Amino acid sequence: xxxxxxxxxxxxxxxxxxxxxxxRAELEIREFSISSAxxxxxxxxxxxxxxxxxxxLRAVREQIPTTTAADIAAFIDTHLxxxxxxxxxxxxxxxxxxxxxxxxxxxxxxxxxxxxAFDEMDDPYLRTRKDDVDxxxxxxxxxxxxxxxxxxxxxxxxxxxxxxxxxxxxxxxTVLMQRNGVAAFVTRYGGATSHMSILARSLGIPGIxxxxxxxxxxxxxxxxxxxxxxxxxxxxxxxxxxxYYHAQQSERRRxxxxxxxxxxxxxxxxxxxxxxxxxxxxxxGDFTAARQVGASGVGLYRTEFLYMNRRNNPDEEEHxxxxxxxxxxxxxxxxxxxxxxxxxxxxxxxxxSRMDGANPALGLRAxxxxxxxxxLYWPQLRAIVRASAFGPVxxxxxxxxxxxxxxxxxxxxxxxxxxLERRHVAFDxxxxxxxxxxxxxAAICADSFAQFLDFFSIGTNDLIQYTIAIxxxxxxxxxxxxxxxxxxxRLIAGTIDAGNAGGVPVAMCGEMAGxxxxxxxxxxxxxxxxxxxxxxxxxxxxxVTQTTVTDVEESARKAIAAADxxxxxxxxxxxx
Length: 576
Ligand code: PEP
Ligand code: MG
Hints:
Number of helices: 23
Shape: globular
Bound molecules: phosphoenolpyruvate, magnesium ion
Distance between the termini: 35 Å
Helix content: 40-55%
Mean pLDDT: 86
C-alpha cells in the first residue's frame, strides 16, 4: 500500500525510481602518542595526505562538463580552498606539535572545534558550512588511513535512474550523480541553503532534504516517487499513484518547454506594461545562469559572500576585482551592488563577535556595522565607486532605518568621488544610490528617503521578520512568517506608492519576488521590477505575461484596505 514521507523540497521536479541507499561508515579515528622525534614525519604525512586530497578533488573538478553552471566548480573550489589555506590543516599541524598526537586525531580535534563554532551560529546557511568541514576532513582522514573503505561508496555505475537515499551528500557526490543520470535524491539532513541543495537546483535534480524517517521505512531497490515540489516521498506506489505522477511529470515537462520560449521574449503584461526581471547573485559566476534565462540585470549582488570562508577581510583591490568581474560578465546590464550586510546571523568572519548581544538581528548589522567599522566600509565604498567607471553600477544600502543614515552614506560617497577626482581616477558621477527597504521604519518613511535617493529595493526577507517580530532563522516561530500579513502588504504598497510619488523606481529582491504565488498580487500592488533567483525567473516571467494588471489592481488595493479579515482573504484568493 502506498505511504508518504515528508521533507523539505529543495529542488523542484518529480522523479520515479528505485531507491539506492548510500551508507557511509564512520571512520574509526583513534589517538596515538608520538615522540618528539616523530613529529616531523607526522607533519609530513599530513601534508602528503592533503596534497593527495587536492589531487583527487582537482580530478573531480576536471570531470565537470564545461556546459555546467560555473558555480558548480566553485563549490569544489571551496573544498580545494579549505585544503590550501585554512584553519583546518594549519591548526592540525600545530596540534600534532603541541599534543604529540597522530595526524588523524589532530584533524579530528580541529574538525570538532570548527563544527562547534558553526553549531553556535543561528544562520542556517552558515550552519550547513560545517558539512564542508566534515567532507574535507573525512577525505584527508581516509587517505591517512590508507583509503579505509566506506561501507557503500557511491558507485557511479549504479546511479542511472535511481533515487539516491543518504544521510547527506557532498558537492562532489552531486556532480557524480548528475553525470551518471540519477533520478532524484533524498537526504536525512541538510537545509535548503546547503551547497548540495544549491547545486541540485542548478543541475535540475529533484531533491528533498530533512526527511528524517527515510532510512526506517525505505529499503534498497524499492520503487519511490520523489516530488521535489512538495517535499513528498511516496513509497510502494500503486498503479494509480504512478499514473498520477507520470501525468504530473508530463505536465511539468510541457510547462518547462513552454517556458523556454520565454527566454528571449519581452517581459510585458497582457495590457502592455513592461516589467523588469533582474537576478539576485551571490557569486559572480551565478550570473551565467541569469544570462541564460534572459535576466535584464543584477538586482542584488550580496557582497558579504566575499567575506566567506576566510579569516581576513577583502581589501579595496579584491572588492574592485570582484565587481569588475561581475560587470564584465553582464556586459552593459545594470549591476546593483549592495554594501555588505554582515552582522547578526551573517558573521562570515567566523569569530562570532558580531553576534554578541541579546537580539543580534536588531543589533549592529549591515550599514550600521559598516558605519562603525571604517576598515570594512571605506575600501568597499571606494571599490564600488571605482567600478562604476566600467559599467552601469548602482550602489545599494542595506538595513537603513533613518534618513540621517542614508544622508551620511550619500555624503561619504561624495567624499570618495571627490578624492578619486583629485587623483584622476575614473568613476561615474551619476551612479545611482539606492536603499534596501527592509526595516518597517524605512518603509513607513519611504517618502522622505525618496527625496534624495535614486531607487528602492524591498527586502521582504527582513521586512517580514521585522514587521511581524519573528526571527527569520528561529524554527519555533517559523509558522508566523507570513508574506501575506496585511501589515506586510500595506508596507509594500506604501513603499511602491512613495516611490511613484517621488519618481523613484521600486524593485523587490526578497524571496517573495521569486515566489510565483505572489506575482499577480505584487503586480496588482504596483510592483514593476522583480529581482529573483535565476532558476525561477522564467516562471515569474510566465505569470507576468499572463496577467492583465488592470484586472488585479483593484482587488489588490481593496484587499490591503479591508478591515474584515474574511473580506481580505476572499479578495486575496482571487489574486493568488
Ligand atoms: C531581504 O532581506 O529580503 C534581502 C533580500 O536581503 P537578505 O536576504 O540578504 O537579508
Ligand atoms: Mg535583508
